[in-house]
């Protein structure tokens, strides 16, 4: 892997983390000392992806802006890595008129058709959509591909299995990426899933797959590279499973009592400092450069937050618009 | 008779008329394709795709696995990318296995995206009972779909409208649920319905979505209805006409948008209204029509509104049980007589 790619993966991860930390900070405005999910400038559920940056960085490095990507309820990392406009995305999260969806979507329903990005708050249900996008690309004879990112909890949903079957049957140019963060909200994977391996499930449908251990961004990059190339060459779908890490709660405000015993180890498994150490040890990065990368990311994120805050809220009567085209 | 008149008089079954509309749009626009269970060599269980495979091939007329979440969701994805899929859900009763794709995705994405993403797909599905197919294969359920915002709902009753509404549905930039009663299709394997065959123009034409049609003019009461019940209402109206009772029959043709003006106009003329609905009675279409009149001008009514609908029970199997709950001509006639006498 060349140096510029490795540094680019690092920058993407740092940019996502700076975003998630800033959203987390803003989310708690108005929600302290007593937590009220509907209070403050950023209301509603908030599922942040800190710790899962390697999946976004490694996958999206191979996707072009004309490739489709669907995400789940925890979508910020892949949206940003795929090139969704950060300012308009932040404004959407703040429920502002200038948001991607003019304030009608919110953080679980981000749509950016200019980069073929969409997401769904319903587990596994972004997968059939990605199959249909891949079907459209195949019918038109382009080399575009579609990817769907879901959590490991999705593997027990019907939509997961139906999508795997359709994709394999129709040899669709689609990449399924399973983010295994060990937890379906509060239930560990061992208590929810009879066969630990999503890639086994993929193989049962004739879909080749790889599991990436250790939340390795370079591992994800390599595996997704093979999968995307397969899809572009019309060789059919692939399934990549990444053993990743949910650094924070399922949603903000989640006390994670169910996870107390393992939480002490969690910060030590944070993929960003781990990768920074690797890059520094190999002489590709120094502390000064690392700080500069972080500062640049923070600057971009704070500009996006300012843009969102300065944008007006939608007028109430706009609630009645856009039911039909 | 001139050639032009003979052309106008060409008669097709409702199913053939639908297929003709689909085929004409497929010839016009390469982005239109069909998928669903048994839509290929079989030609659609209810004849909605017969002959399409021969003309357009398996790339554009795709048999799917029995996997409604998968292929309806794939229709949504293809529509998002700008194609115009026509996706068949064989029986509307099967909505339970795929409703998330229908109402959380197909119906909501345009709104959730603030109007930035269009989902121009047609979901065609068969509805209705009357042939002892039991509780999971006989429902109409149109009000269930109409209740959920974001889908247009069309329900033709005759061949001419079926073709024109299909063409309108394919050309519409919104998701359109296109519901056909098995009893109006002109199927070879079901009791013959004389009104399931009718004149259909050969050329392409649209029937506007959201416009009701006066199927029969009358002065004494308005029967507001749709789909197969239009046929029953017309039969009853002809019978009562011999006794000097003139029923107006309003064929809604679309539920979303609902042509409220046409309802109010007809009720304003007759002062009496009977709603005939093969869907469940409570919380449905008949209540919506009653509310429309009550909200707009309750003084239009010279007598209390009457309704014939499926009482709030699942559709039973045995012939006498099913006939007892469906809006049969006998129930419609009894209600109409009661209404006019009131």
Strand/helix succession of chain B: HEHEHEHEHHEHEHEEEEHEEHEHEHH
Overall pLDDT level of chain B: 96
Number of helices of chain B: 13
The helix/strand series of chain A, from N terminus to C terminus, equals: HHEHHEHEHEEEHEHEHHH
The poorly predicted ranges of chain B are none
Taking the alpha carbons of the first and last residues of chain B, their distance comes to: 47 Å
How many strands, what sense, and barrel or not for the largest sheet of chain B?
Answer: 7 strands, mixed
Unreliable stretches of chain A: none
The oligomeric status of these chains comes to heterodimer
Distance between the termini of chain A: 46 Å
Measured as a percent range, the helix fraction of chain B is 25-40%
Helix content range of chain A? 40-55%
Largest sheet of chain A: 6 strands, parallel
The coarse silhouette of chain A is: globular
Number of strands of chain B: 14
With strands numbered from the N-terminus, the spatial order across the biggest sheet of chain B is: 3-2-4-5-7-6-12
Number of strands of chain A: 8
User: What Rg of chain B, in angstroms, do the CA atoms define?
Assistant: 20 Å
Greatest interface: A-B, 42 and 42 residues
Q: How would you characterize the overall build of this protein?
A:
The complex is a heterodimer of chains A (325) and B (342). Chain A is of the alpha/beta class and 325 residues long. Chain A has helices spanning 3-27, 53-60, 76-81, 86-93, 126-140, 158-169, 198-204, 217-232, 260-263, 271-281, 287-310, and strands at residues 68-71, 117-119, 146-151, 174-180, 183-184, 187-188, 209-212, 238-243. In chain A, the strands form two sheets. Chain A has a six-stranded parallel β-sheet, sandwiched between helices. In chain A, helix 6 links the parallel strand 3 (146-151) and strand 4 (174-180). The longest helix of chain A has 25 residues, at 3-27. Chain A is globular, with a radius of gyration of 19 Å. The N and C termini of chain A lie far apart (46 Å). The mean pLDDT of chain A is 97. Chain B is 37% helix and 20% strand. Chain B is globular, with a radius of gyration of 20 Å. The relative contact order of chain B is 0.12. In chain B, strands 3-2-4-5-7-6-12 form a seven-stranded mixed β-sheet. Chain B has a five-stranded mixed β-sheet with strand order 9-11-10-13-14, sandwiched between helices. Chain B has helices spanning 3-8, 14-28, 52-56, 68-80, 99-106, 109-112, 142-147, 159-171, 228-241, 260-270, 285-296, 319-325, 329-341, and strands spanning 11-13, 32-36, 61-63, 84-91, 122-127, 152-154, 176-181, 197-199, 213-216, 221-225, 247-251, 254-256, 273-280, 306-310. In chain B, helix 9 links the parallel strand 10 and strand 11. Chain B is of the alpha/beta class and 342 residues long. In chain B, helix 2 (14-28) packs parallel to helix 8 (159-171), helix 4 (68-80) runs parallel beside helix 5 (99-106) and helix 9 crosses helix 13. Chains A and B meet through helix 5 and helix 6 of A and helix 4, helix 5 and helix 6 of B.
């Amino acid at each position: 892997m060349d140096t510029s790619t490795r540094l680019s993966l690092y920058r993407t991860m740092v940019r996502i983390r700076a975003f998630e930390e800033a959203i987390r900070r803003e989310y708690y405005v108005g929600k302290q000392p007593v937590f009220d999910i509907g209070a403050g400038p950023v209301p509603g559920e908030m599922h942040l992806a800190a710790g899962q940056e390697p999946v976004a960085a490694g996958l999206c490095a191979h996707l072009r802006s004309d490739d489709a990507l669907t995400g789940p309820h925890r979508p910020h990392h892949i949206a940003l890595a795929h090139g969704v406009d950060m300012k308009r995305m932040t404004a959407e999260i703040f429920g502002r008129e200038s948001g991607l969806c003019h304030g009608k979507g919110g953080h679980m329903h981000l749509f950016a058709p200019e980069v073929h990005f969409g997401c769904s708050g319903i587990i596994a249900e972004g997968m059939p959509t990605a199959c249909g996008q891949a079907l459209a690309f195949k019918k038109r004879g382009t080399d575009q591909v579609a990817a769907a990112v879901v959590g490991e909890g999705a593997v027990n949903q019907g939509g997961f299995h139906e999508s795997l079957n359709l994709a394999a049957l129709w040899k669709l140019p689609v990449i399924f990426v399973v983010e295994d963060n060990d937890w379906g909200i509060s239930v560990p994977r061992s208590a929810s899933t009879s066969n630990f391996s999503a890639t086994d499930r993929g193989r049962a449908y004739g879909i080749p797959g790889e599991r990436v251990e250790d939340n390795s961004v370079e591992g994800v990059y390599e595996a997704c590279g093979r999968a995307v190339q397969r899809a572009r060459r019309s060789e059919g779908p692939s399934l990549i499973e990444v053993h990743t890490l949910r650094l924070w709660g399922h949603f903000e405000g989640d006390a994670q009592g169910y996870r107390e015993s393992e939480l002490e180890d969690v910060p030590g498994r944070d993929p960003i400092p781990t990768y920074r150490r690797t890059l520094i040890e190999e002489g590709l990065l120094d502390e000064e450069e690392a700080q500069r990368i972080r500062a640049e990311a923070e600057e971009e994120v704070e500009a996006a937050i300012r843009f969102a805050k300065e944008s007006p809220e939608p007028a109430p009567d706009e609630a009645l618009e856009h039911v039909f085209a | 008779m001139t050639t032009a008149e003979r052309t106008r008089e060409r008669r097709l079954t409702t199913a053939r008329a639908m297929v003709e509309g689909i085929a004409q749009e497929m010839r016009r626009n390469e982005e239109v394709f069909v998928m669903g269970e048994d839509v290929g060599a079989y030609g659609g269980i209810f004849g909605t795709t017969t002959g399409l495979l021969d003309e357009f091939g398996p790339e554009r007329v795709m048999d799917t696995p029995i996997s409604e979440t998968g292929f309806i969701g794939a229709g949504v994805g293809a529509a998002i990318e700008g194609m115009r899929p026509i996706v068949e859900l064989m029986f509307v009763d099967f909505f339970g296995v795929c409703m998330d794709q229908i109402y959380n995705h197909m119906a909501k994405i345009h709104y959730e995206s603030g109007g930035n993403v269009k989902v121009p797909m047609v979901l065609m599905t068969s509805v209705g009972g009357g042939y002892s197919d039991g509780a999971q294969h006989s429902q109409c359920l149109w009000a269930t779909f109409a209740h959920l915002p974001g889908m247009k709902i069309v329900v033709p009753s005759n061949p001419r409208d079926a073709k024109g509404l299909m063409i309108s549905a394919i050309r519409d930039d919104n998701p359109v649920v296109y519901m056909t009663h098995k009893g109006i299709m002109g199927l070879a394997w079901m009791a013959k319905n004389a009104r399931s065959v009718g004149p259909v123009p050969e050329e392409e034409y649209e029937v506007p979505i959201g416009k009701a049609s006066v199927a029969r003019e009358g002065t004494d009461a308005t029967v507001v209805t749709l789909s197969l019940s239009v046929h029953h209402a017309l039969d009853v109206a002809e019978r009562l006409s011999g006794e000097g009772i003139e029923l107006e029959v309003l064929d809604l043709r679309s539920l979303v948008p609902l042509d409220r003006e046409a309802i109010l106009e007809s009720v304003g003329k007759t002062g009496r209204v009977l709603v005939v609905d093969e869907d469940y009675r409570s919380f449905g279409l008949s209540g919506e029509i009653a509310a429309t009149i009550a909200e707009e001008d309750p003084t239009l009514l010279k007598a209390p509104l009457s309704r014939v609908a499926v009482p709030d029970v699942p559709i039973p199997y045995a012939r006498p049980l099913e006939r007892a709950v469906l809006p049969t001509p006998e129930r419609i006639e009894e209600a109409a007589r009661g209404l006019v006498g009131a």
